[in-house]
Fold this sequence. Notes:
Elements (H helix, E strand, L loop, with lengths): L14 H7 L28 H7 L10 H8 L3 H15 L4 E11 L28 H13 L4 E6 L8 H16 L3 E5 L5 H9 L4 E3 L18 H13 L3 E3 L2 E3 L5 H12 L7 E6 L16 H14 L4 E4 L8 H9 L4 E3 L12 H11 L2 E2 L14 H17 L6
Parallel strand pairs: 1-2, 1-9, 1-10, 2-3, 3-4, 4-5, 6-7, 7-8, 8-9
Helix pairs in contact: 3-9, 4-10, 5-6, 7-8, 9-10
Bound molecules: iron/sulfur cluster.
Pathway: Cofactor biosynthesis; biotin biosynthesis; biotin from 7,8-diaminononanoate: step 2/2
GO biological process, one term: biotin biosynthetic process
Pfam family, one: Radical_SAM
Amino acid sequence: MAQRALLRPIGLASPAFARTHRLARPFSTVIDAPVHPASQPAPPQKPSSSVFQDALQATGPRMNWTKEEISEVYNTSLIDLTYAASTVHRRFHNPAAIQMCTLMNIKTGGCSEDCSYCAQSSRYDTGLKASKMVNVESVLEAARIAKENGSSRFCMGAAWRDMRGRKTNLKNVKEMVKGVRALGMEACVTLGMIDAEQAKELKNAGLTAYNHNVDTSREHYPSVITTRTYDERLATISNVQNAGIHVCTGGILGLGEKPQDHVGLIHTVATLPAHPESFPVNALVPIKGTPLGESQAIKFDAVLRTIATARLVLPTTIIRLAAGRHTMREEKQMMCFMAGANAVFTGEKMLTTACNGWEEDKQMFERWGLRPMESHETVGGQQEITQQQGNDAVAAESQASSQSATATV
Length: 409
Ligand code: SF4
């Protein structure tokens, strides 16, 4: 007998029997010899939707997604969803390359906006001391340190509503951008709302990317922010795109939203004239004193589901595992990387919240065979995936799946 007799008749594993005989885990069967897969009954086949199959076989980005289609992808079983996301991720990106970005606050606090999650809003008593803009030299010194530690992108954030009447500040920011680019790094800024002219000036200074999150779905947005509209956010994104700067725009999970708001968030960015170069997924870090300061943490499966859906819907975009990563264990982070996340913030601090440090990340990368993405290695998924390459990849995958006995999605 190849299989030792710890296999029990079903009746013996009944809850009553388990209670009296301490069989707490009726499935803990011990088998001495491997079971040949051919001898096992085939698992029931669940037809995948055509939307899901289309997303899985994408050869490039598409901008005509409907909310219903994204919802169908989002609501696919998580095991199938993450597998599919991983498959698409490998078609468009090197799965070992993770972009390391360092984010520096160049002007802290005192912001007039009322974003319910933000420590830097002057409307909330969070204990944060507002400060003036830091000087160019100290920013470039921080960028140098970030580069030495493996970061290829340096992001600079200022707590401003917009750039109106900030000529001197803009001049200094442009100097910072030039200096960061001269170090061979990608430069990103987040300065609030900007107009077309300011976007052009930043482009001419060499800016790689501009971050301006839409935060959540259009429907949920008014319960989070009231001092500027969703459309004002989209107008800034449009100014950035029109100036030829890469757009970094994403959201925050855990703002009291519903799953359909994750779908709505992805739908907003997926239907922009061009997909953003980068889509940050933040998990709210509740800040005491803000209206969302006592919020429950978002569940990990919702974070993973959002990342995997974003990977399928935005195949060429860099997906950034942003705020809240420091609260995740390494295994959870790895699940996110496998499901398509390929950028992190790393360094001493991330704006006003804690951040995983370079050393910790380097060790994690080494354990899992990851490496820091090179500067401009994959900016905006613009790594020239041609239609033919995409088709070839799909053909190779379907040939491989027809030759193997492994499960397909
Ligand atoms: S605009 Fe930015 S800095 Fe100002 S409150 Fe909102 S998130 Fe904070």
